[in-house]
Design a protein that fits this description.
The protein contains 21 helices and six strands. By secondary structure, the protein is an alpha+beta fold. Among the domains are: 138 residues; 120 residues, no CATH class. Helix 3 crosses helix 6, helix 6 packs parallel to helix 8 and helix 10 crosses helix 12. It is rod-shaped and about 110 Å long. It starts with 8 loop residues before the first helix and ends with a helix.
Length: 391
């Protein structure tokens, strides 16, 4: 005969809950439901005074002392708080310092936890000075009501990345304090702050429930056009498309949208020409005048649109491009399209009889619909002089 043994679900869940409370993960500590245990502790100390409270504190089991920190975050009276801190003062231990720090990170504005942390910090300073010096508590000034601002100040003095800062001082990355620190940092940091913490900023944008619009706008405002972080820009495009293509950009100032579009033009231009080529180094100086960039890498052609003009660049020509006036370009474009050029059936043909060198145009005042641009030596100066006239 087979026998089946059934453990009642309620009993199993109760046992499991008890085990989790006794052996929680670090990130669970601040959110454990200790309501019943805390209330029992508060009831026990309610009528105790003087020596009776001291005797109770000395006899209280080690496993129950951690309830002090969970009790301190409750809505308790001043008398209850003083009794809890008195018990703690008689049973100071190093592990309580770390436990308090974990609790404080999730309830960083709780003054009761701040007071207990001050008590434990003094204990650590006297008993474990080396460990205390390496802790964030050694950088804090007590009483402390602006923990986020103090953390930002310490971060600035340490001159390290946010990841290094979190590791060095035992910050839990998902704690309320860390989230608040990220919010404040990324709405006030300089350009280097974004460049040095790009991956953390990316991870934060991906995981935060509400998209951090103030921080993204600060990023768009503070970054230099030539020093943008491509990974961040790519994520913004992935999440919100380009300006004008989603509701998100409706809440972003027009000047930041324009700046973002200028980044995308430079990215496309640099990707095709190469970020260190003479052509790219020349044209990036005119990014504000570039209306649009169309790259056809498989055909080896790039169209760079300027007011009234279009630059056509062929990948095979290292030091040469062609500048079309817009009317001539449109005629040539339609002919190329009709002949199946975008399907690779034909090559773009530059009508040699219509080409005028930019040098001749400048020195001899010769006018044409198509100009040859040469990036070698003085050639760049002739291109620049012409652009300054037409732009």
């Amino acid at each position: 005969m087979d026998y089946a043994f059934f453990v009642p679900a309620l009993k199993f869940q109760t046992s499991l809950k008890a085990i989790r409370k006794q052996h929680p993960f670090v990130e669970e500590i601040a959110w454990m439901d200790m309501t019943d245990e805390v209330q029992e502790l508060l009831d026990q100390i309610e009528l105790l005074q003087g020596n009776k409270l001291s005797d109770y504190a000395i006899k209280l089991q080690n496993s129950r002392l951690e309830l002090i920190f969970h009790a301190l975050i409750q809505d308790i009276s001043e008398n209850q708080k003083e009794k809890l801190l008195f018990i703690l003062s008689l049973r100071l231990k190093k592990r309580f310092f770390h436990y308090n720090w974990i609790m404080l990170q999730e309830h960083y504005s709780n003054l009761n936890l701040m007071e207990s942390f001050h008590l434990l910090s003094d204990f650590m300073k006297n008993r474990y000075p080396e460990e205390f010096i390496n802790s964030f508590a050694s950088r804090m000034s007590f009483p402390c009501s602006e923990l986020v601002q103090q953390a930002l100040s310490v971060l600035k003095s340490e001159q390290c990345t946010l990841n290094d800062f979190f590791i060095r001082f035992g910050f839990l990355k998902k704690s309320a304090l860390s989230r608040a620190l990220l919010e404040e940092f990324f709405v006030s940091c300089n350009q280097d702050g974004f460049l040095e913490n790009a991956q953390l900023f990316l991870d934060w944008i991906r995981t935060t429930e509400n998209k951090p619009l103030p921080q993204i706008k600060h990023y768009l405002m503070i970054m230099d056009v030539f020093a943008y972080e491509e990974k961040i820009n790519q994520l913004l495009i992935e999440l919100f498309d380009l300006p004008g293509q989603s509701q998100f950009w409706m809440d972003v100032e027009e000047e930041y949208q324009t700046k973002f579009l200028e980044w995308t033009k430079l990215k496309d231009l640099g990707k095709y020409l190469g970020p260190h080529t003479e052509k790219f180094l020349f044209w990036k100086n005119y990014y504000q005048y570039i209306e649009h960039v169309s790259c056809y890498a498989e055909l080896g052609i790039l169209f760079l649109y300027l007011p009234g003009h279009v630059v056509i660049d062929f990948k095979k020509d290292k030091d040469q491009s062609f500048l079309y006036k817009k009317g001539a370009f449109q005629v040539a474009y339609r002919a190329f399209e009709a002949a199946g050029g975008f399907q690779g059936k034909t090559n773009w043909v530059v009508e040699s009889e219509k080409i005028e060198s930019m040098k001749s145009s400048i020195l001899e005042n010769r006018v044409s619909e198509i100009y040859e641009l040469n990036y070698e030596g003085l050639g760049k100066l002739y291109i620049r002089d012409y652009l300054e006239t037409i732009l």
